[in-house]
Amino acid sequence: MGVWQTNRYMWKVDLIEQRKKHLDTPVQPLPNDATFGNAPEDLEFRPLELEGKFVPNTTFYLYPRSPPIDMQDTKGRVTSGGYIYQLFQRPNGTSVMVNRGWLPKADMEEHMKLPDAPSKTEKIVGLIVQGEEEKTFSPPNEPQKRHFFWLDQPKLAKAMGNTEYVPVLVDQLANEDEARPVGEPLRKMKQNYLGFYMTPWKHAMYAGIWYTLAILGTGMVFHRFRSTARRAAKSKSA
Q1: Which of 61, 69, 163, 192 shows a CA-CA span of 20 to 30 A to 176?
Q2: Is residue 52 within 8 Å of residue 91, measured between CB atoms?
Q3: Alpha carbon of 59 to those of 6, 100, 129, 170, 214: distances in Å?
Q4: What is the rounded CA–CA span in Å between residue 214 and residue 220?
């Protein structure tokens, strides 16, 4: 296990370094024909510009989810809320599923009651990300209620009305040069994508624990056999 954790440590360090390089690349346009099935892996976590319109009546919610950064309000730390997903149609007719950001639970519930207003053509910048895999105890999604517990990318596309192909999934980035307007969803910044629950430091710590246990175990076995050998030698001499 110590060797495995060491390998994981090295892999995680390389992963973070590679992701940093991708995040620091200049903004480039998303290829016109990009879909879930053909988008190059090398595009992931590179800033991409999209132009188009958000499609009314294609809004879905991924919750419960914690905020992308620590939030404070007058009642204390806000920890419950969810992400808003909406279909974004580009001038060439292709679609993209966009994570528009996170809202606290109360604001999200109010957002659900509002009709989707017609949108104007706009440009947004975001990162291609992947959906999630269903876990053993994942509850079933409820697309009929516009509610997803886990991010099933193909099912979300179908719920949004996209049945010919599965669009790419894009997290809309926060504009770090401007203050977030009041009431706007909270969007992730680039540095949010460099954080992992299992950090390289944790891998190193666990590797150290396993190596220590291995050394202690080896020492105990050696001590036991050495003691047994001494007792056997004494018995023979007696």
Answers
A1: 61
A2: yes
A3: 43, 10, 18, 14, 53
A4: 10
Distance from first CA to last CA of the chain, Å, rounded? 45
Whether the CB-CB separation of 22 and 44 falls below 8 Å is answered with: yes
**Residues 35 and 167 sit within 8 Å (Cβ to Cβ):** yes
Return d(Cα 8, Cα 121) in angstroms, integer.
44
What is the Cα–Cα distance from 99 to 110, expressed in whole angstroms? 18
- Alpha-carbon span 159 to 142, nearest angstrom: 10
* Among candidate residues 57, 162, 30, the one with its CA nearest the CA of residue 118: 57
Identify the bridge partners of residue 163 per DSSP, sorted by sequence position. none
pTM score, whole prediction: 0.79
As a whole number of angstroms, the distance between CA 86 and CA 59 comes to 5
Q: Could you tell me the maximum CA-CA distance found in the chain, to the nearest angstrom?
A: 99
Contact 193, 19 (CB under 8 A): yes
Residues 6+ apart with CB under 8 A from 154: 36, 131, 166
Give the start-to-end residue ranges of the domains of the chain.
1-23+198-237, 31-193
Instruction: Name the nearest CA neighbour of 42 among 150, 127, 142, 107.
Output: 127
| Residues 49 and 124 sit within 8 Å (Cβ to Cβ) | yes
